[in-house]
């Protein structure tokens, strides 16, 4: 059965999933890269993003590896794909990750501006969805073929799906830093009213990993 998951999304202690002033030089905003200290040294990250052997193991790597298991499709907001706003000026920009992105499955990018799909190395194809977040989810479910759909972010994209009760499980990594400003993940969201409960909490040196699940009996 296809589940809709957020996995490995990192926030600061004060609740921000990215810092302020995001641009091509600061894709996660000022200070935002510090959120992911728990992730970047892990064996899973080194293998999936750089194709390298080695990296750290333990709690952080366990959660990083879990985040990639049984994923058949991804959904991203446009900012997670690139810094360009408005209509696409050309076909030059193909994402932050080079020729072989770490997804290796179909990826559905929310945008107001149509663009032809982009086939990348390693099995990743970016599809650009102009019909809204529900259309993206319908297409991602179909593409996933019974596997899970992973909502990659950013924070505003996750909030859209949370408000509609469409996310079954969230793994949030809380990094021990303060950003002060930026993109808040849970702004205007009442997780308890939406039926979410914490089913797991594990701390490492660089993050506290929290897993939330939504009751199937909760009505929105």
Automatic annotation (TrEMBL):
One Pfam match, given by its short name, reads: RibD_C
Listed under GO biological process in this entry are: riboflavin biosynthetic process
SUPFAM superfamilies attached to this UniProt entry: Dihydrofolate reductase-like
What molecular function terms (GO) are annotated for this protein?
5-amino-6-(5-phosphoribosylamino)uracil reductase activity
Tell me the InterPro entries matching this sequence.
Answer: DHFR-like_dom_sf (IPR024072), RibDG_C (IPR002734), Riboflavin_Biosynth_HTPR (IPR050765)
Domain named Bacterial bifunctional deaminase-reductase C-terminal: residues: 9-206
User: Which positions make up the signal peptide?
Assistant: none
Q: What is this protein called?
A: Bacterial bifunctional deaminase-reductase C-terminal domain-containing protein
Source organism of the structure: Ralstonia wenshanensis
């Amino acid at each position: 059965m296809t589940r809709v998951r957020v996995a490995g999304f990192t926030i600061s202690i004060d609740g921000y999933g990215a810092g302020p002033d995001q641009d091509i030089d600061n894709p996660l905003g000022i200070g935002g890269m510090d959120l992911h200290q728990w992730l970047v040294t892990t064996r899973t990250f080194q293998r999936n993003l750089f194709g390298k052997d080695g990296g750290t193991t333990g709690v952080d790597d366990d959660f990083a590896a879990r985040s990639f298991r049984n994923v058949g499709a991804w959904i991203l907001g446009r900012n997670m794909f690139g810094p360009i706003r408005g209509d696409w000026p050309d076909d030059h920009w193909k994402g932050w990750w080079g020729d072989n992105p770490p997804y290796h499955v179909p990826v559905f990018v929310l945008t107001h501006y149509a663009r032809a799909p982009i086939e990348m190395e390693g099995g990743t194809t970016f599809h650009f969805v102009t019909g809204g977040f529900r259309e993206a989810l319908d297409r991602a479910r179909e593409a996933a073929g019974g596997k899970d759909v992973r909502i990659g972010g950013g924070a505003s994209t996750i909030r859209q799906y949370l408000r509609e009760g469409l996310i079954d499980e969230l793994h949030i990594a809380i990094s021990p830093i303060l950003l002060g400003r930026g993109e808040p993940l849970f702004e205007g969201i009442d997780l308890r009213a939406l039926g979410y409960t914490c089913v797991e909490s594990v701390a490492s040196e660089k993050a506290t990993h929290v897993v939330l699940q939504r009751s199937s009996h909760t009505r929105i």
